[in-house]
Amino acid sequence: MKIKWPFLVLIAFLTIMSCQSDQADEGKNLTTVKELDELNKLISNNHSDKDALHQRAKYYLATANYEDALSDLNKALQLDGKNIDFYLTLAEVYLKMGQAEACSGALQQASILDPQNPVPFFRLAELYLMMDEKASAMIYADRSLAVQSFNPDALFVKGLIYLANTDTSNAVRNFELALSQREAFFEALMQLGIIHTIRHNPLAEQYLLKAVRLFPEQYKGRYQLALYYQENDRVEDAELHYDTLLQLVPDNKFVLFNLGYLNLVYLNQYEKAIRYFEDALLNDPNYVDALYNKGRAMEELGQYANAREVYQEVLRRETNHPLAIEALNRLDNRR
Predict the structure, then answer these.
(1) pLDDT tens digits, residue range 144-202?
(2) Domains and CATH numbers, the chain
């Protein structure tokens, strides 16, 4: 089996692939709970300490040392082959390694060992959705819900499956159900915010504001809120949130670009726009859109020779860039 990335759910899965269980959260924070040297001491003193092996495997998973994680998990499973937590972590490791078939096998084994546990089923649903096998994904999501109806993770996955099938109404319904069971559900808030933004529904602001309030450290929520304000001509609100983002992620080229765009298109602050586009280019010299818009700002300032050089550079990097060609023709007509 090969993992595919359906366009409709790519952004969603970039946010959920850490897995939304307490076990996954523990793995993320492991470096602050137990340092590697402490785990090494425990295992050195007792080679049969399966829990310490599991904890160290999660440490290795969190630090992308997948081969070491597999080694510890195999040792732990030799000591206790019926521990589903070991299989769930094993599935995460295989997923990170891109081994979908092995990931599925580990999750299937976990579901056999504890058929009343909803977690293996909703993770199988996630996995099959990533492989673009939506029918199988829905079967596993429903099995997870059959085991446990209070199951926001499975409801969220069902929403993603409907979204992948372009059934937006049912996607929204399942995301809302997931939120009714878990109010602080960042991914569900984001999906609803994005969907309602696309629908030009003012409910988008409500969901995105809640995401920012509940998860201030998650800059993706604030970025999406700023985009919403920008697309709805609320320039001051957009600029405020972009400025806040710069404090959180000062080198983010998209934030810098959008601030440049606001100053170019909405505020007519062309010199300021140039500075933002140049900062974006410092972080990504191949960011052609930033380069083109730098030229556009120069053109607005009457710096036609400089603008021409920039547009020509755009075409050297991206042949037949339509806006750069149009801009050069526009400059030619000024002669």
Answers:
(1) 999 999 999 999 999 999 999 999 999 999 999 999 999 999 999 999 999 999 999 99
(2) 1-182 (1.25.40.10), 183-250 (1.25.40.10), 254-335 (1.25.40.10)
